[in-house]
Design a protein that fits this description.
Chain lengths: 309, 501
């Protein structure tokens, strides 16, 4: 009986951690447990969470995608350029997403067929496409993107901020794919043991390439959200976002070596970090301390996971 | 043989894993200057017991007594301190380091002041250790460039380097040729005469009668009994192990042989596979014999599309097929069960059920690309029953199953696909007599339904027992083909070493 309780606690440790965190913060400040604050937290978190969900697919296969921040910037810039030249918001969104997919495809092909390590490939594309962003923005933000575009990041649908709606849709699709489809099963198999997966007849090159396309698309979607919320496409957008995404994935319990984890964990990881930041803000802790706290949370999460083994 | 007090006593040892009682009140006694066999079916608990002794696992209860005093073994270094060394069934060498580095890993001698490793001394010591077990090789060779048998010998040298009093060998000869096995037995005898205590875990009853003095038998995690080798017959020993009388060890079933299912013509790959041509017919088990390094696995992997052939053609049911990947091969009805299940067969972090259906998921896919988990579960249960796979449930992580049961899961994975040709590479390596027979029965059933089975094996009795025809390979080429009637150990060996007629 005692053993059972221990197993249950360990299984849901991330969720329990999140709940405890919420309880502690709400004790300290009454402003935490309010609907406007929650909406705020979710909106803040949604950008990172969308990228992190894409990143989860990559990390589950044992890979990594360092280029998501740059993909966010270059697709945001592309959307801005299209809006300024054609005024067509829908076209801007499609092109932005397409760019995310294409860069993801480049990453995926170099890693799977090119047999170059993911770290190196995505480090290179991270640098290259940051440079591309600078070239196309001439180093300055592109602003004046109009009402209809800014609605995406700032308006609501069904009482929820649109970025949160995007997050929910992405989350539902991701969970479905990973837990219910053949492709999802293959992603876990590939991360667990690539040789065994290939010898079982799985097209490992295809699976690998696709996860990077997914990650690129997610980053591009976040690029659209960010550009819309701020109202301009900055050449510095997304810098460091890859680390926040990886942090969310890791805190949520997905293993960096692949084969183990879930997007549910990732969302909880993103929420833990987001709630922590929010709580510290409400208590008026300097943002400098927030970085220290975030790093400690990551270590703590991994140590708890290790103790479980 | 010092028989007064046992060098080692294990009393009432128990160990539990989630959902499994691996050991219950087990006892073991080992004496200096004696070779003790530890015998039991898969899942009997032999490996677990030895992992507790060598510090890899912690026991849940019981006591370990060495030279009369109780000891607490909390980890591998503790075990080493007490003079216990273990050579695992699953080799634990580091492939990117060379031989002498692996042998002295963790025990490097270095200069106290400069902290520099005494490379020269260690290299010399390594050469001596290896020569003692009949292995001459440049100790700067990287371990990843050695084959399985050679790695095994380095493992043994590593254990010997630690000046142990008790050496545990877990299935040491599974990847060794007859020549190397003889060498190993010479070394074991030498060690025995130096008053060392050797615990020898093996399923190979013939070897046990050859080299062991006493036998302890475990079954289902419990201690069954202890006998002197001279006091028992093979049949009685098997009964003790299995709990029932085993009829035939190698059941051979004659089936009507049909048309050629697989034809391979002039197949080549690098230097390892040279101009191989043969046919596999419906309703037959075609054995592939040969010494280590003869290219059998390479040939199988080339047919399967894992290796890219440099020339040659493959025909399935008379039609030429183009196979560039395992996926292609499977689509054409060719399946391959790898010799290294840990590295190439299993996905350790996944469940028994997920491992089993991994190659067949398309079958359970319904609309919206969804896996019908009910159907999947039905298939899994069907095969768990069919192959008598011992597991608490289909959700159990496969890493907790014993080697034999893991192998059965992988076998189920391929049989589920109803392949035309099933290539199996060392299918019963590291598997006990009871499970072996179950696998042979499955193979015979498959054969009777008209499949062609190609069985690569280094187990001579197995090849002679259940195969209809036997191919022998030598240095990448087929050096001979024998029918069951023509075949004998000598005939096979003759072709295996390259004497042609």
């Amino acid at each position: 009986m005692k053993n059972n309780l221990k197993n249950v606690v360990l299984k849901y440790k991330s969720l329990i951690g999140l709940l405890i965190l919420c309880m502690v913060i709400s004790f300290i400040t009454p402003r935490f447990l309010t609907i406007p604050n929650f909406k705020n937290v979710f909106t803040q978190v949604s950008v990172n969470a969308v990228i992190a969900i894409g990143m989860t697919f990559v990390i589950l296969t044992g890979g990594i995608d360092l280029s998501v921040g740059s993909i966010l910037a270059v697709s945001g810039a592309a959307a801005a350029i299209i809006i300024k030249s054609t005024g067509n918001v829908v076209l801007a969104i499609i092109v932005a997403l397409a760019i995310g997919c294409v860069i993801g495809l480049i990453n995926g092909l170099l890693i799977s067929k090119g047999r170059i390590q993911a770290f190196i490939v995505t480090l290179a594309t991270m640098t290259i496409f940051r440079g591309v962003t600078y070239v196309y923005t001439n180093g300055t933000p592109i602003s004046g993107l109009g009402q209809s575009f800014s609605a995406i990041g700032n308006k609501m649908i069904l009482g929820l901020p649109i970025p949160v709606v995007f997050l929910v849709i992405v989350f539902v699709i991701a969970i479905y794919v990973l837990s219910q489809t053949r492709y999802g099963r293959y992603v876990y198999a590939l991360g667990g043991n690539e040789d065994s997966a290939r010898l079982s007849g799985i097209n490992t090159d295809k699976i690998k390439t696709l996860v990077y396309v997914i990650s690129g698309a997610a980053a591009a979607l976040s690029g659209i959200i960010v550009t819309s919320r701020i109202g301009s496409a900055s050449p510095n957008a997304g810098v460091g976002f890859e680390l926040d995404a990886i942090a969310a994935v890791v805190v949520g319990g997905t293993s960096l070596s692949g084969g183990e984890g879930s997007v549910v964990g990732t969302i909880i990881g993103a929420l833990i970090i987001g709630v922590l930041n929010n709580g510290l803000n409400l208590i008026n802790v300097s943002p400098f301390y927030q970085a220290i706290v975030k790093g400690l949370v990551i270590l703590l999460a991994v140590m708890v996971k290790k103790k479980n083994k | 043989m010092a028989k007064i007090t046992p060098l080692l006593q294990m009393k009432n040892v128990s160990k539990y894993f989630p959902g499994v009682k691996a050991l219950e009140d087990v006892k073991l006694e080992a004496y200096s200057g004696e070779v003790l066999a530890l015998l039991g079916e898969n899942g009997a608990g032999k490996s677990t017991l030895m992992k507790i002794l060598s510090g890899v696992y912690n026991k849940d209860s019981g006591s370990i007594i060495i030279q009369g005093s109780e000891v607490d073994i909390k980890g591998i270094k503790d075990a080493e301190k007490h003079g216990i060394a273990i050579i695992h069934q699953e080799l634990s060498l580091l492939p990117n380091l060379c031989i002498w580095e692996n042998i002295f890993l963790g025990n490097e001698e270095f200069n106290g002041i400069t902290r520099r490793i005494n490379k020269k001394t260690l290299k010399e010591k390594s050469e001596i250790l290896l020569k003692d077990i009949g292995f001459s090789i440049d100790v700067d060779t990287l371990v990843k460039d050695l084959n399985v048998g050679e790695k095994q010998l380095v493992e043994i040298a590593k254990a010997l380097s630690k000046n142990s009093k008790i050496i545990i060998m877990d299935e040491p000869t599974t990847a060794l040729t007859d020549v190397e096995t003889d060498n190993l037995f010479k070394v074991i005898t030498k060690l025995k005469n130096q008053n060392m205590s050797i615990v020898y875990i093996s399923h190979r009853i013939n070897e046990i009668f050859q080299i062991c003095d006493r036998i302890t038998v475990l079954r289902d995690g419990k201690y069954i009994g202890e006998v002197m080798t001279t006091d028992i017959t093979k049949d009685d020993l098997i009964s003790m192990m299995v709990g029932r009388k085993l009829e035939e060890q190698f059941p051979y079933k004659k089936s009507p042989k049909g048309h050629t299912i697989l034809k391979v013509e002039n197949l080549s790959f690098s230097e390892k596979v040279r101009n191989i041509s043969f046919e596999a017919k419906s309703g037959e088990i075609l054995g592939v014999s040969g010494l280590m390094g003869s290219g059998r696995t390479e040939m199988a992997k080339t047919i399967f599309g894992e290796y890219k052939k440099s020339s040659g053609k493959t025909f399935v049911d008379g039609e030429e097929v183009n196979i560039n990947s395992p996926k292609d091969a499977i689509e054409k009805g060719i399946c391959y069960l790898s010799e290294d299940r840990k590295k190439e067969g299993l996905i350790l972090g996944m469940s028994v059920g997920s491992n089993m259906t991994l190659a067949n998921l398309k079958k359970y896919e319904n609309g919206a690309k969804r896996i019908d988990k009910v159907e999947e579960s039905k298939s899994v249960q069907e095969y768990i029953k069919k192959l008598s796979i011992k597991t608490p449930s289909a959700q159990q992580l496969i890493k907790y199953l014993s080697g034999g049961n893991q192998q059965k899961v992988i076998l189920a994975k391929w049989i589920m696909l109803a392949p035309k040709v099933l290539i199996i590479d060392e299918p019963t390596r590291g598997i006990d007599v009871g499970a072996k027979k179950e696998i042979y029965d499955v193979l015979n059933e498959l054969k009777a339904t008209g499949k062609a089975i190609i069985m690569i094996s280094s187990d001579m009795p197995e090849i002679l027992g259940i195969c209809d025809r036997i191919l022998i390979m030598h240095e990448g080429e087929i050096s001979g083909i024998l029918s069951k009637e023509e075949a004998s150990q000598e005939a096979i060996m003759k072709y295996a070493v390259g004497i042609k007629n």
